[in-house]
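Protocol step 4 of 6: structure prediction from sequence.
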Amino acid sequence: MRKILLIIKREYFTRVKKKSFIIMTILGPILMASLMIVPIFIAKMNDESSKIIVLDENGIYINKLENNPDISFEYTDIYIEDLKTSYIKMGYDGILYIPHNSMPNRAYLFSEKQLGLGVKSHIQNAMKYNIDNYFMEQLFNINRDSIKALEQNTRIMLEQRKIDQLGQEKESSTELSTILGMLGGVIIYFFIFMFGSQVMRGVIEEKTSRIIEVVVSSIKPFQLMMGKIVGIALVGLTQFILWVFLTFAIYTGFSMSMPEYFEGKTENNELVSMDNKFYPENVMMESTVQAENGEVQAIIDSIKSINFTTIILIFLFYFIGGYLFYATSFAAIGSAVDNEADTQQFVLPVTVPLIFALIMAQFVTNNPNGQIAFWLSIIPFTSPIIMMVRIPFGVPVNEIILSMSLLVVGFIFATWLAAKIYRTGILMYGKKPSYREIIKWLRYKN
């Protein structure tokens, strides 16, 4: 055990003192924070509004197209040919032209510069909204304001609640659980790949430099392999924790120093009253406000209901357990080859279960309690990712214990197999191993 601790200490301090570790520890949080901060700045810088002048010769859309912070409409009766030559001087970005006697759903958008997809989509949606109201008024004599008020008051609020065996209720959110689960699964996926590859490369470097021949003269190959795996795991955990704290610190610092960039836009959503006795103005306003407040409160209650302590502890277990399970295979591969180019044929079978788990994760979120989700979260090859996807949805304690136990047993068994390959392959030089050759190494007796 003392020798393993020495190897762990050596691997840990050798790697954390490297310039690459320090640089990535600093750059990682900056890059991750930038992914959250830069889009906010770009969105603020791109706050220019497009001005469209509307020539509606049918009169259906006059003063009815809705403005928003990104696009505004003004109306005119100038002849279209004159408008085409003067709209830029008038300060407009484009012309929306609805010809006389044409179908009311047919229009032309003229502009010198190609307008963005958002502008076109908004115009199409605004026209569709108004043409629907136009036909409703013409065919069924339903007031336009009545339709708008009806749409505002028919928002469906479906609150999710979980109940335990005692009948006690607790807030829940499928959307929030999906985000948390997928985030945890993706982090574990990249962690295993990133630091598992480091184990493999480290073994190859020591093998090709012949340092390993000196090291194994005073320590058993198994002890060397375990020390290297655990040491790099601690390096990865250290870097991950630093990334989380530094990213949070950078984002918080920016949001506090420049709050004007991080405040959401507040739009004045006008409530339209109606004359229908079944929908008086005060009832409409009250129900709309209640719906909006209910959505916000439901999100807050769902966040409060999540047991983050349990999720973090389980995440750390699968974070480390998944890495240890796969790192033994990466170490065995590194010991079996002489250079990184020869690893491709052996790495693929190891990584396929991880890729499969990540693909299946999106299907598991649709049915987190199904048989497929259960078995994928139990099998050690896929459990680190799939169980993390299921945890926010709520998993029975007995299934968590079973999954963890099998992952530990799988790690022990994988370590035993990897050690048999490692002790033979680490001293093999100048020969490209095949699967048949590796199977022979597994059959060698101690």
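Step 5 (inspection) to follow. Residues 265-289 have pLDDT under 50 and may be disordered.
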